[in-house]
Amino acid sequence: MARFIHKEQSEITLDYVNLPDATSDTRQDGGGTAAVTGRKLYKLVAVSFGFLCILQAALNIYLRLSLVIEARCTNEADGLEKELIPFDRYFQEGWLYLRPSFYFISSGKKSWQESRADCLQRGADLVVINSREEQDFTRKFHKLTWIGLSEGETNGTWKWVDGTLLTESYWHPGEPNGFEGKLEDCVEIRFHEVENSWNDIPCRDQNFWICEKMIPL
Q: Where in this chain does the record put each C-type lectin domain (predicted)?
């Protein structure tokens, strides 16, 4: 504020009291602004650094998951390839597939026992017919073929090579009959043109045969 002091009427003196120092205020204002700016910059750097840390952590997790998934897929692919190799070998050896089994049809003839021995050597056995679909499949080859059915020690009891008793049969009309008093203990597929195609004949007779190996795909 200004105060007027009258020393003489002809002389007026202005005495300024408590006026701010312009130089001092300018320096103080500049320092305050710089401090505020510094704090904002520090916060920005801190936030940016935190964001980078989060991003790095997320990237590390992603890379680890990618490696785990890749390793698992590789192992599964290797396992699948190992499983497919035997299947390819069966196809190359002339086996046919009807879910859930592979089938091998011989090119030569043998007795029932010899035919079964050949199937066992191949890791299979003479075919066991469990369904109408399988029955229709086995008679498409138009060969006299042994199947894995024979008469047990008890006369009239027919049993499959897997030990199960015959429940559903496809005998041709009039079969089994022991034709002309022969001991006909083994079964062949003879009448290919009809669904009921089975015929009983002596096990020592020579026939083609069908091996079956169950390998679910």
A: 97-212
